[in-house]
Fold:
Amino acid sequence: MHLEEIYEIYLQYPSIQTDSRKLRKNDLFFALKGANFNGNLFAEQALEKGAAFVFADEKISINDERIIQTDDVLKTLQRLAHFHRRQFNKIPGITPFIAITGSNGKTTTKELLHEVLSSTYKTYTTEGNLNNHIGIPLTILKVKPDAQMAVIEMGANHLREIAGYCEYTMPTHGLITNIGKAHLEGFGNIENVKKGKGELFEYLRNHNGTAFVNAGDDAIVETSEGISNVTFYGKENTNVYGSILRSDPFLEVSIVGAKPLDIKTNLVGTYNFPNILAAVCVGRHFNIEDEKIKNAIENYNPSNSRSQLIKQKSNTIILDAYNANPSSMKAAIENFASMTGDKKILLLGAMMELGQESEHEHAAVISIIDKYNWAAVVLVGESFRQPAHKYINLDNALQAREWMHEQHIENAQILIKGSRSMQMEKVLE
Structure:
């Protein structure tokens, strides 16, 4: 079946599902497969649940005209997303597609941009962290014809991944939050992280796009060289800069201007300051009034274990268990150490995807912990067993939860952080 014919089917049934358990009547079911799953095995079940059509790349035992055979379901999904994306370039006044990548802060920055842009424009964005080879095409296919803006988050753990995403996302604008020690196992070293994230700017450079660049980050500035359209922020005399007013517990900032723009956020951590500056910069670039920008950022509440401040009885807990790498772990520990409190407890899960650098980077985290006085430190995971240290070491988050319950902790300040696979949020269950 030709792509144009598939697109006509999509226009008639624009809801796509890749998980048969979540399927609703008249959804299109794309039977994706991977190392640990095979959607083709659930094709018949999808039809029974009311799927309008099923896209499969293996022979299905039943004959049904609603089964559409393709050579590769994933590639079909990506090609369909690309075809849909191209339609927005045919609409008078091309719809901006803003891509965001970076080692840390992608999702928070994406959410802030969505809040700011939605104050004035019909804006679609990535749901949660669906920022990979499956999530990005699904996000694009959820962008409706009434879109005035789209914000697409892109994650990556190896070279040329972002470049591939750009081919079917076709971003008109882009932003790199930062370049740090994330996914070293896949990238190999920090220089390759820089190259990998820089693939977004490479696309913008070759397609006359616009880059939003944190002028305070030399690596990002260097990566943006050669882009014709650049809007700088984050440093004095750039389009948007400012200062931190306070950060205990919530971050409050002041943006410099003819009339200073003071913003009281619901975000924890000074490391979120560049994310706020980015949101203000993008908002102003698209001519959104400062008051709308301020209200949008102040009304944003983080969720899904991203720098959440939680009050639990007499304890104050910072839950930052969405992800962790050496850069974000360092920032979180140092920020927590600077906050008010005389009974601070760390519960830190191991950092994943560091490859040969794992032992070195976990030892570096322990060195940071050693600089401060803590009421208690609990390190969770096998990777924290190799470097010598004096702290409690547990196998998993469930053991950490038991430890918490046994301590009967009161009037404490607690930081919980770790890589996603460590599921450190279970400590609070």
